[in-house]
UniProtKB/TrEMBL annotation:
SUPFAM superfamilies according to UniProt: P-loop containing nucleoside triphosphate hydrolases, PUA domain-like, Ribosomal protein S5 domain 2-like
Annotated function: ATP-dependent serine protease that mediates the selective degradation of mutant and abnormal proteins as well as certain short-lived regulatory proteins. Required for cellular homeostasis and for survival from DNA damage and developmental changes induced by stress. Degrades polypeptides processively to yield small peptide fragments that are 5 to 10 amino acids long. Binds to DNA in a double-stranded, site-specific manner.
Family note: Belongs to the peptidase S16 family.
UniProt organism field: Poriferisphaera corsica
Organism ancestry: Bacteria, Pseudomonadati, Planctomycetota, Phycisphaerae, Phycisphaerales
Name of the protein in its database record: Lon protease
PROSITE patterns reported in the protein's UniProt record: LON_N, LON_PROTEOLYTIC, LON_SER
Induction details: By heat shock.
Claim: Signal is one of the keywords in the record: no
GO molecular function, one term: ATP-dependent peptidase activity
Length: 844
């Protein structure tokens, strides 16, 4: 009997597996989520009963269904403890899905009430100490009573009784239709395994069929949980039918799109496959017209910009090309960017000029102190614009040392005219394409800086400041200075062609104002296109007024101080100017004023508001000394000369006028001549000329030239780290050599400038204003200038003329008379030893 019983059981098992085989996971939409497991012990699973008390393992992001096999990764300490303790006695556990996936340690309230009892078929330990289990779903269970929660949840379960509310022919037809749609969905799914259809058609139980399909559909965990909790099989079948129908429609649509694309392209159009597929998708979504909308909008912008006829024709040609190019093509973005640039440029947008000269004068006086000559020239410029608006006018170039207000003058001009202000810094630019742009054939091509700034300004006639023009460089990428020749020519720039734009743009309405510190590095052709306006440095009186009117109020505001807390006296400002700065501009002066204000702010900040109201600091010379420390410059010591071989020269550099100390010394040697101090070629030539002039006049000094054959001369210009060059130090070199060889120190407080010829003539030089201003700043009392520079006296600031005494020299003898004094010079000549040959003849 047992044998027959066993045979019957096995036979019934075989018949049951044919009708309702184990629902091995066959994922239709997301392959790999549910795997097929061979040898999963069907007999053990079918005979397994669901216990009434089971441990509960929370899972997240998934829902387990009866009859399915699924791998689950376990990493929580509580879940690992559950497996360790429960699998030894029973392989059946309950899986309940979390409501919120982000909860790390869920409680009973965080789990859905309906779960699935599963049998653990296999346990695999991973190298990272996690565990993977393979489970087989047994049936739905509902949590009835919680027995314990620590270290894991154990609860009493009651099985969920399913019911079949309908067994009519309509229900049978619905099941058959569901199977047909599911088979069609599997066949359309590219990743479905081959045995999926066979498994589907062998499922006869409606509940198993619904669970099999829903487990493999691409649904949210919430949707799957709703289907798990649905105990009415007929309702569950209808809901699964809806989901299968929806996903089948999606698959059919995708398949249709793919077929439409494949039928619309030929062998020669394979490279457009992805673009055509995108078009087909947009056609199905009703978004086909987005590219057309862009073209319509671009055409409207071009009409609104109203460029010249030639430019509009070029834009229309490019627009016609754009209509034929697919949006995904790289050339599409290149052409669209080009057309957007044309549409954004201000072809006809002009700012209305405000040519009120009194208002312009008020603005210039408000923003800048002094600079009367520069302001007068700017007012003349505006007056001509008022009388003749069509006049293009010259290109102005403001030249002067740093910190004198060149850039801010451009801003004031823009404010006076009511125009936009654009500043372009050319410092360090070496690529010609920065001016003219790159051709569109290059990857990442862009228009030049001129066109870019006009696009940002939004007007055709801004005030454009070309800052630091003397800092332009040149290398293998071209010469930007040469590219500016067309830009800065009023007769040519009405048809300026940027390489990227490739159509002419009228720059004649732009007011170009260039700035430079030194014109020596600016190419001659570029200088020829500009009107140079020199801006001299400020005198001490100017700096005092500027500090009172502009710098002190600005620094008080920036450092949170007021005039009632910090009152600057004239003595404090003068102390800062004379002993802590030595510059042509006022930038360092403002920094030193800011240092004093910060020092006082550190003292005021700890005080209470009541003490601050009663406290007041007076910034005088003593207060400045206590904050800034030891004086940087002591003018009286700088100009005191007591040693032969020292002379003071005046030079004009990129930072304004400078006082040069020229030192010469001699020592026994072979008649060599050594130069140090980072001298340029021109200055080295001046030294050689000065020595030759002295040798030619040695007889006048009764000097023995044999002495030079036995001694070496070393001439040095201190501050060797600073490059020095120029033709204006010739007489200073000659005076230093003469002072050395005659052993006669020159008078203190005398500086000189001028070039020297081999005949001893003193030639005129430039930069007289800057050089005399530097001499006044250094505390020098007397300046020797070439005779031909006498006419430059009227350009020197009256404040400087009051501080200096001017002497003019036409020959080196005039220089020596002024530098040494005639009596001292004669006395020095008498002290020289007699000529050796002359002494020998007297003995005979």
């Amino acid at each position: 009997m047992p044998k027959k019983k066993t045979t019957k059981k096995r036979g019934s098992r075989k018949r049951q597996s044919k009708k309702n085989p184990p629902l091995t996971g066959i994922n239709i939409e997301t392959p790999g989520m549910i795997v097929e497991l061979e040898g999963h012990h069907d007999l053990d699973v079918q005979s397994q009963t669901i216990p009434s008390v089971m441990p509960v393992m929370p899972v997240r992001g998934m829902v387990m269904f009866p009859g399915t096999i699924m791998p689950i990764s376990v990493g929580r300490p509580s879940s690992l403890k559950l497996l360790e303790e429960s699998l030894a006695s029973s392989k059946v556990i309950a899986l309940f899905t979390q409501k919120d996936e982000d909860i790390e340690n869920p409680t009973i309230d965080d789990l859905y009430s309906v779960g699935t009892a599963v049998m653990v078929l296999k346990l695999i330990r991973q190298p990272d100490e996690s565990v993977q289990i393979i489970v087989h779903g047994l049936g739905r269970v509902t949590m009835d009573e919680v027995i314990k929660t620590d270290p894991y949840i154990v609860a009493r379960m009651k099985p969920s009784e399913e019911k079949l509310s309908s067994t009519s022919k309509t229900f049978s037809a619905a099941i058959n239709q569901l199977k047909d749609q599911a088979r069609e969905l599997i066949e359309l799914s590219p990743n479905a395994p081959e045995q999926a259809v066979t498994v589907l058609m062998n499922i006869e139980d409606p509940s198993n069929l619904a669970d099999f399909l829903v487990a493999n559909l691409n649904l949210d965990p919430t949707q799957k949980q709703d289907l798990l909790e649905e105990l009415d099989i007929a309702k569950r079948i209808r809901q699964v039918h809806q989901h299968v129908s929806m996903q089948l429609e999606i698959q059919k649509l995708q398949h249709k799109i793919q077929q439409d694309v494949q039928s619309s392209i030929g062998d020669t159009q394979r490279k457009f496959f992805l673009r055509e597929q995108m078009k087909a998708i947009q056609r199905e979504l009703g978004e086909e017209g987005e590219g057309e909308d862009f073209l319509i909008r671009l055409r409207e912008q071009l009409d609104e910009a109203d460029p010249p006829v030639a430019v509009m024709e070029e834009a229309q040609r490019e627009l016609s090309r754009l209509e034929l190019i697919p949006p995904a093509s790289p050339e599409y973005s290149v052409i669209s960017n080009y057309l957007e640039l044309i549409a954004d440029l201000p072809w006809n947008k002009l700012s209305e000029d405000n040519l009120d000269l009194e208002r312009a004068q008020t603005i210039l006086d408000r923003d800048h102190f002094g600079l009367d000559k520069v302001k007068r020239r700017l007012i003349e410029y505006l007056a001509v614009r008022k009388l003749n608006p069509e006049n293009r006018g010259p290109i102005l170039c403001l030249v002067g040392p740093p910190g004198v207000g060149k850039t801010s003058l451009g801003q004031s001009i823009a404010d006076a005219l009511g125009r936009k202000f654009v500043r372009m810094s050319f410092g360090g630019i070496r690529d010609e394409a920065e001016i003219r742009g790159h051709r569109r054939t290059y990857v990442g091509a862009m228009p030049g800086r001129i066109i870019q700034e006009l696009r940002r300004a939004g007007t055709k006639n801004p005030v454009m400041m070309l800052d630091e023009l003397d800092k332009l460089g040149a290398d293998f990428r071209g010469d930007p200075a040469s590219a500016l020749l067309e830009v800065l020519d009023p007769r040519q720039n009405n048809n300026f062609v940027d390489r990227y734009l490739d159509v002419p743009f009228d720059l004649s309405q732009v007011i170009f104002i260039a700035t430079a510190n030194y014109m020596g590095t600016v190419p001659g052709p570029l200088q020829d296109r500009m009107e140079v306006i020199e801006i001299p440095g400020y005198t001490d009186h100017d700096k005092l007024v500027i500090a009172r009117k502009y710098l002190v109020p600005r620094q008080l505001k920036e450092n949170g101080l007021t005039r009632s807390l910090c009152a600057w006296q004239a003595s404090g400002i003068r102390k800062t100017i004379e002993n802590y700065t030595r510059e042509a501009g006022v930038r360092e002066l403002e920094r030193q004023i800011g240092s004093v204000c910060r020092g006082l702010a550190a003292k005021i900040a700890p005080l209470t508001p009541a003490r601050r109201k009663s406290k007041k600091y007076t910034v005088d010379a003593k207060q400045v000394r206590s904050v800034l420390g030891i004086e940087k410059f002591m003018r009286e010591d700088d100009i005191k000369i007591t040693t032969p071989g020292v002379a003071l020269g005046l030079a004009y550099t990129t930072v304004g006028g400078e006082v040069l100390f020229i030192e010469a010394t001699q020592y026994p040697g072979k008649g060599d001549f050594k130069l140090t101090g980072q001298l340029g070629d021109v200055m080295k030539e001046s030294v050689s000329a000065a020595l030759s002039v002295f040798k030619s006049k040695a007889a006048d000094f009764d000097f023995d030239l044999e002495h030079l054959n036995n001694h070496d001369i070393h001439l040095h210009v201190p501050a060797g780290a600073i490059p020095k060059d120029g033709p204006s130090a010739g007489i200073a070199m000659f005076t230093a050599i003469t002072s050395l060889l005659l052993n006669l120190p020159m008078k203190s407080g005398i500086a000189m400038t001028g070039e020297i010829t081999l005949r001893g003539k003193v030639l005129p030089i430039g930069g007289v204003k800057e050089k005399t201003l530097a001499a006044a700043r250094a505390g020098i009392k007397t300046v020797i200038l070439p005779e031909d520079n006498r006419r430059d006296l009227e350009d020197i600031d009256p404040q400087v003329q009051k501080k200096l005494t001017f002497h003019f020299a036409a020959d080196v003898s005039d220089v020596l008379t002024i530098a040494f004094g005639q009596p001292r010079l004669k006395a020095a000549i008498k002290k020289l030893k007699p000529h050796p040959r002359k002494a020998t003849s007297e003995k005979k």
